[in-house]
């Protein structure tokens, strides 16, 4: 999740370069890192003037760099971006709390179901079936031998 958040926040690719279908619309707008990065860049870039690329041209303002080069809106202040990042983080924490509470209540039900299905499958397996009595066995099986006590076992010729 953190990798997806970093990939869509604007650290690696600019907002305008993200594909619209999955990356820009759902992930870019619910990403708290996007708003934190916008606030940090607004804090650093607004009010600055940069030297032009070619001498004799007018200086480039930090606002133009943010809007034209990086694609960040400057219609609202950095404090709105920080507030949005904080609200998104609180919402994520609350959602995670409810997921944990749901898991806490659902796990005993899931474990009971899983145990019942596993025991049912184990009963179907031939190795867990009860062995028929010795007089009904067509041939002696090494799997279902008569258990002898340890005191009756002598030497290397022990039945077990």
From TrEMBL:
<dbReference type="InterPro" id="IPR052215">
    <property type="entry name" value="Plant_ABCG"/>
</dbReference>
<protein>
    <recommendedName>
        <fullName>ABC-2 type transporter domain-containing protein</fullName>
    </recommendedName>
</protein>
<feature type="region of interest" description="Disordered">
    <location>
        <begin position="124"/>
        <end position="160"/>
    </location>
</feature>
<keyword id="KW-0813">Transport</keyword>
<feature type="transmembrane region" description="Helical">
    <location>
        <begin position="79"/>
        <end position="100"/>
    </location>
</feature>
<keyword id="KW-0472">Membrane</keyword>
<comment type="similarity">
    <text>Belongs to the ABC transporter superfamily. ABCG family. Eye pigment precursor importer (TC 3.A.1.204) subfamily.</text>
</comment>
<feature type="transmembrane region" description="Helical">
    <location>
        <begin position="21"/>
        <end position="41"/>
    </location>
</feature>
<feature type="compositionally biased region" description="Polar residues">
    <location>
        <begin position="150"/>
        <end position="160"/>
    </location>
</feature>
<keyword id="KW-1133">Transmembrane helix</keyword>
<keyword id="KW-0812">Transmembrane</keyword>
